[in-house]
Every structure is written in structure tokens, then in C-alpha cells.
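This entry is passed on directly below:
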Amino acid sequence: MEDLVRYVWKHRIFPLTPLQTTDGQLIEVVHPGMENRNDGPDFFNAKVKIAGTLWVGNVEIHGRASDWILHGHDTNRRYDSVVLHVTGEVDREIVRTDGTPIPQLQLEIPGHVVSNYSELRKTDHYPPCYRVIPELSTLTIHSYLSSLLYERLDMRAEQIAQRYECHEKNWDDALFATLARNFGFGTNGEAFDEWARRMPFRAVDKHADNLLQVEALFFGQAGLLERGSVLAYYQAALDSDEYFQSLCREYAFLSHKFNLRPMDYTLWRLLGMRPANFPHVRLAQLAMLYHERRISVSRLMSADDRMAITEMLRVGTSEYWDTHYVFASTASAPTKKRITDNAVTLLLINSVAPFYYSYGRRKDSEQHCERAIALLEQLKAENNYIIRGWIDCGILVKNAADSQALIQLKKQYCDRRDCLRCRIGYEYLRKEYGTNDQ
């Protein structure tokens, strides 16, 4: 109830009848105030006229008036600045710390708002607000998508900033860890995050010219050289797999040299995945990327265009993986395990563009932030069930900037049923649908 009362107050969706305090004084809302999501009153610097007198101060929102006492506001001086208490139900009088009463407004929530909000919360249809989308202007939708895109980039930038701090403020390590996260392509993203946190990149630097040693460090730290990590069906073939045995010998030496401990191999997922996305193949590609020093912050920042960045990421594997997807498996027909065009596009969307943005924020460089947006606008939109759902509603999705915004909308608003913070949800709630529309 409190969230809905807050929403109605914020957007001034008031009933047609005059607003009054509980003791009958007329209220005119000049400005509802600035919403506060942190500690303290819910709205700062509101302007309300009560019985003709203009009050400038704070407004507190509750589902019931008694919540004022329950939350301890009657003994908290921070709430002495409240000039109006807005609540869905007035079940008692309230006072400031000095005992002076505070005017209260029992705010009636329009019936269609309650009905629409209930429908949004309960429906299994995705997107739940599909009925209102065809009625919205292109300007309304795309201005909101622009806001959502920046919100998503801000969120991603914060994650990259945390990697930067975790890797001793080394931007190259943060870039590689970001790429590694997205080499998991969803299913193994968390496992790659854990792997990157454990990678001793300065140790790898000392052996970067030797691909076998880089692979040994990468696979060893991933826990994939543990015999238990290999499918039972292939266990017997491990002893005769010379490549696997070489990696084990190298890792035994390097792990002792650098005092390393592998991660838990059970974090990796293979079931339901295409073999080309198995972590073994992705780690082999990352090892080649590191060995060839194809990508670094300096190279990324000096890249002329999208194609130059694409060429940095279009990497393959060592020869063993041309005929394998996991260790000791029955050799497959020779296939070069190069990063596909679609995979490169996803890395540009989920790694490179956010890295530009994060780097730009840290360096206070508007140019790098704008470059992130420009890159997303050059890339084709993602094609997944989330994007198809919005397209079916009539939203035009022109590029990856739009699709990233819509993914943000789905994950941070729709999935959380946080319709009260959504602009499309606002349009839906204020709409008075007829009974035939329900």
C-alpha cells in the first residue's frame, strides 16, 4: 500500500474531489517535492498550501498513520521538518518530537490505478504492460530507452570499476577479466568471473610467450586439470592424452612456483550447451588471446573503428582443440574453433562498450563515454526472447543500444515487478481501461 500511495503522490494522480486534511482543512499541492530513496522523509522540499498558508518542507508517506510510530519517527528529529503526512489510512494522530501535531492527508487511490497495478503484479504475460505500448509515441518510448541505456551502462561500469580495484588498479587486467566474464556467454559467466579473480596475471605475464604454459595456467586455475573434472566416459583416455599430460606437468611446476590453488571445477556448466561454448574451448581461445597479446587498453583506445576491434577479438585456439571440445574426448572432424561473428558482436556489446564507458567515467572523458554509445548504435540488436517480446508489442528496435535498454527494462523492472518506477508502467497505471479491455 505504501508504495502505491507514494506513487500516486509523486505523480499527482489525485481524485477529482478536493484534498483535505483529516480535520477538514483544504490542501493544494503546489509541488510534491523531490523523491528521496535514502534515509529520511520520502519527499524533500515539497510545497503545499494548507488552509491558504504555503508550507515548504518535507512529506512523509505511509500505508497507515500508525506506521509513523512503528518506524520511530515520533522520536527522530530528522522528521520534525515534515509539514504533511500522507497515508492510505489514518488510524491515529501523529506528532513531532516536541509533541506538536502534524497535518495528515488520507489519500484516496483511484480505483483504476489499484486495478491496473494489481493486473501488472499478477499477470504472467510478458511484457505485462503490452496493452498500452501501441498508444505511446515513438518519442516517449525512445527517450525512455535512452535513459535505460545509460542506466545499464552505469551498472556495467560499476562492475568493471570493481574488477579494476580487485586487480590492483590495472586496467589491462580489468579489461581481460571483463572479456573473460562474457566469454561465459551467460551460462558460465559467474564461473569465468571466479576464474578471473583467481588468475595471477603478473605470473602469466612471465610466461606469456609460451602458449602451452599459458594454457596450463588457464586450465589449471579453472580446476579443469583435476581428473574428476573430466567426464567419466573419458577418464581412461587421459593417461594416453599427451596434451593433457603436458598441461598437468606444466601446471604442477607453475602452481608450486607461484603458490597457486585451482578453483572448484564443479562451478562449470556443460549440460545443455553447444560444444563450441564449452568452457574448455573458451579458455583455449582466451589463452591464445593472452599469448598473442591481441588486446590491451592502449590498443583498444587507439582502434580506428569497430572492424579494428573485431579483428583483435577474432581469435582461434591451439591445434589440439581443432579436434576436441573437452580433454580426451573422441577426436572430432577437424574444425577451427575461432570466435564466430555473432560471438564477437556479443563481446563488443557486453565487454567493449561498457569498458569504454567505465574507463571514460573514471578518466572523466566524455569522448570515451560517447564512443561506447556510438559503438552500440553501430551494432545490430540482439535477437533473444526478451527483445522479440518487445518487438511483438510494436517497439522498434533499431540497434544494440535499443536492445540493451530493453534488456535493462526486463531485468531491472519487469522481473522485479517494479512497475511504479517504470515510465511505461506509469502510462499503464494512469490509463482507465474499460471493462471490455480487462
About this structure: The two ends are 22 Å apart (CA to CA). DSSP finds 17 helices and seven strands in the chain.
